[in-house]
Design goal:
Three copies of one chain form a homotrimer. By secondary structure, chain A is mainly beta. Chain A contains two helices and 19 strands. Chain A has one domain: UDP N-Acetylglucosamine Acyltransferase, domain 1. Helix content of chain A is about 5%, strand content about 25%. In chain A, strand 18 and strand 19 form a beta hairpin. Chains A and B meet through strand 11 of A and loops of B.
Chain lengths: ~170, ~170, ~170
């Protein structure tokens, strides 16, 4: 039951502890890996060869492209002004809110315990530091950290050997 | 077993994954909803029509009033100087600490990955931003964010139509 | 299955919810307590009489000495530049990264939702505030808080009666 029939699982998706996850209505790409205590909601997409680490929550409206690393305890959000109830006091249901989408572009990495506020785009190959709170768009290849997250570097100057993105075109499917 | 017999559950409480929660000795009000990977300890209270989202921890001494939204991965605490052991080196037990209580007043919302330090009161209709660390009281209707959390706005000026609290008296039971 | 045969459990280790943890290849010392929704990876060590609270992730390369308190939702990390894929586009495997170790010295306490960046040492009896992001070494007995974590006090001046560490030598095994 914790992996609903409504999940579209690609080939060779690794979920070592299927009884300790909660996945429903989402799409998981080929060869991706999903850790323990992960929840992935409906209408979200995880690309191919991604790692979604333990304790992470991926909400409706999030699109994670190919080759993305999501650390442990990362929380995505889809509503800047969440509320439990409607103005007439009833419990909110789906018709009472609109989802604000978030996109994580290919080969980006998001550090553990980071929080991603709704409506942002995290650029290709970017790195979000552990514990950061991302409140605005992150440019391609940028390193951001802090609360709120600010640019502190560029991944192209940190890796010993720059990532040959052109070689990765097949994986990215573009 | 993960929902102990000691839990006092109200009517129509929704717990979609009862095998993936850990609730004991707490009170959950009518029509509230509890997500996956949530732990709620004894001597804590959740009001009516609340949402307690996935990955959240509600500790002993926390009182959550009616109509409150708690995001994902929110951590409450009840001890500013926690320790594993007593001064004589033994493992601490309940008699070795005193719980410092926390109250979240009605219709407040707490964003995902927020941390609430013990002993604070979060005001009615207030909003705690995602990833914030709340270290002092939050006034009614205030919007707070950051580490430590500071006031950045007022919910009464953000919602298109102010919440008619007077209409909600029945729900709040006051 | 969530407690692998590869775990070396000491005497009187308390794991109230063995079906809600994910432990493998690690060592847990005598009389320690492990909460729900905790993952502890291989090649990590938890000492004696430690508390590892719910929702916490202890990764490979972390050494937690005796008498340490780890709060709820604490995330350790072991790689400052994590990536999902190798430069040739394949999913990373163990041979593709080197673990950067972290040590938490005896009687330290780490507050809930804190993040510990890889490669740091947290000193004896130190206190890491809730929600802090630790990016550098923490001196013995220091109190640190914030993002990034900075020294804000000294535990020896906060406790009513200083901890008699000399009496605790037996427990610490040194």
């Amino acid at each position: 039951m914790p992996i609903s029939d409504t999940v579209r699982l690609g080939d060779k998706v690794a979920i070592p502890h299927p009884s300790l996850v909660n996945l429903y209505g989402c799409t998981i790409g080929d060869e991706s890996k999903i850790g323990a205590f992960v929840e992935i909601q409906k209408n979200s997409v995880v690309g191919t060869r991604c790692k979604i680490s333990s304790h992470t929550f991926v909400c409706e409206g999030v699109v994670i492209e190919d080759g993305v690393f999501i650390g442990h305890g990362v929380m995505f959000t889809n509503d800047r002004y969440p509320r439990a109830t409607t103005l007439d006091g009833g419990l909110q249901t789906e018709v009472d809110w609109s989802v604000e989408g978030t996109r994580v572009k290919r080969f980006a990495s998001i550090g553990s315990n980071a929080t991603v506020v709704s409506g942002v785009t995290i650029g290709e190959g970017a790195l979000v530091g552990a514990g950061a709170v991302v409140t605005r768009d992150v440019p391609d290849h940028a390193i951001v950290a802090g609360v709120p997250a600010r640019i502190i570097g560029d991944m192209r100057q940190r890796v010993e050997e720059p990532v040959p993105y052109e070689l990765l075109g097949d994986l990215a499917g573009t």
